[in-house]
UniProtKB/TrEMBL annotation:
PANTHER family documented for this protein: COBW-RELATED (PTHR13748), ZINC CHAPERONE YEIR (PTHR13748:SF46)
Domain CobW C-terminal: 207-293
Keyword Nucleotide-binding: yes
Family named by the database record: Belongs to the SIMIBI class G3E GTPase family. ZNG1 subfamily.
Taxonomic path: Bacteria, Pseudomonadati, Pseudomonadota, Betaproteobacteria, Burkholderiales
Source superkingdom: Bacteria
Function: Zinc chaperone that directly transfers zinc cofactor to target proteins, thereby activating them. Zinc is transferred from the CXCC motif in the GTPase domain to the zinc binding site in target proteins in a process requiring GTP hydrolysis.
Annotated catalysed reactions: GTP + H2O = GDP + phosphate + H(+)
The entry's keywords: Chaperone, Hydrolase, Nucleotide-binding
Natural source organism: Paenalcaligenes hominis
Protein name, per record: G3E family GTPase
Annotated InterPro entries: CobW-likC_sf, CobW-like_C, CobW/HypB/UreG_nucleotide-bd, P-loop_NTPase, Zinc-reg_GTPase_activator
Length: 298
């Protein structure tokens, strides 16, 4: 019987907001092999990353999944088994992990899975937040573990004159990964609505994700103002905003800035996901957005 070629697998990892989806979008528009599978795992009930991905090629097969860090195990094994049974088999698998996923565990799962071959574990590192991530006891274990399990490390949000902070340099010294300094990517996208960069604050409780969905029309500035008011509890926010008829916006809120740009695709519903460590605070944020709707209806 002819031997079947294993499915070359690339894991995209890195902490919340580090640039995984941005890279995947670039890859999809340039050189992803035909009949590749793209599997996107997000943190939370709504898979926003899946809708932020600009699929261009009909040959790319999309699969969405829940959060790897929560569902790793049976559902991930099932998903891999499903991919492994495909006839004809896919050429390659690209799996974007959630920003708080344990990349080493997923990598081990691929290593032992029949029909798969782990090609690359590509970890994105936001250098501008390295010192914060290295010193925050709620974040540093998963952040360091993601870096140490990588075969390829991509450093972004740094300039050619800048060297890596010591905390990151120490991890890199323990790593055998290939290193890439992505200076070009430090030019942020031109925001249409953006807040001034803000000082970084550290969250205080455990990890949570809450979502907000609405079919009503919202004003971009109102939403931005609400997000800015919850800077203390938010660690990451992303999603789509439905404003006046036919207008859609992509919201990208990271620890340092809120950027809102027009969506390339029509948006018929607002879908936002908020990640942070203070569940009650996140719920208050959602309540505040709900009250915006009430105000606009009144
Ligand atoms: N300055 C700069 N911004 C970047 C870079 N890569 C991504 N961004 C921006 O950072 C924000 C988050 O990028 P994503 O690609 O969505 O990050 P992610 O790792 O997929 O985020 P999660 O899936 O939520 O963990 C977006 O506003 C991007 O435009 C980079 O290299 N430099």
């Amino acid at each position: 019987m002819p031997s079947i070629k294993p499915i070359a697998t690339t894991l995209l990892t890195g902490f919340l907001g580090s640039g995984k989806t941005t890279y995947l979008n670039q890859l999809l528009q340039t050189d992803i092999p035909a009949r590749s599978i793209v599997l996107v795992n997000d943190f939370g009930r709504i898979n926003i990353d899946a809708s932020l991905i600009a699929y261009q090629d009909d040959d790319v097969i999309r699969l969405n999944n829940g959060c790897v860090c929560c569902t790793l195990g049976a559902s991930m094994a099932e998903k891999l088994a499903e991919i492994g049974r495909m006839d004809p088999p896919p050429t390659a698998l690209f799996m974007e992990l959630s920003g708080v996923a344990n990349a080493a565990r997923v990598a081990d799962m691929i290593r032992v899975a029949q029909r798969f071959e782990l090609n690359e574990v590509r970890c994105f590192v936001d250098v501008s937040l390295a010192a914060l991530h290295a010193t925050d006891p709620r974040v540093n274990t998963v952040w360091a573990q993601q870096i140490l399990s990588a075969t390829h490390l991509v450093f972004n949000r740094l300039t050619p004159e800048q060297s890596l902070p010591t905390c990151l340099e120490q991890l890199v010294n323990q790593s055998v990964a290939q290193l890439r300094y992505d200076y070009a990517a430090t030019v942020p996208p031109a925001p249409v609505v953006a807040s001034p960069p803000r000082p970084v604050t550290t969250p205080t409780k455990g990890w949570h994700s809450v979502s907000f969905e609405s079919n009503q029309v919202l004003a971009v500035e109102d939403v931005r103002a609400v997000l800015e008011a919850f800077t203390e509890v938010l660690y990451r926010a992303k999603g789509m905003l439905h404003t006046e008829a036919g207008r859609g916006w992509v919201v990208q809120w990271t620890k340092t800035q809120c950027v809102i740009t027009p969506s390339a695709r029509p948006v018929s519903q607002t879908q936002l996901v908020f990640i942070g460590m203070d569940e009650a605070g996140l719920e208050q944020l959602v309540q505040r957005l709900h009250s915006l709707q009430t105000e606009s209806v009144a």
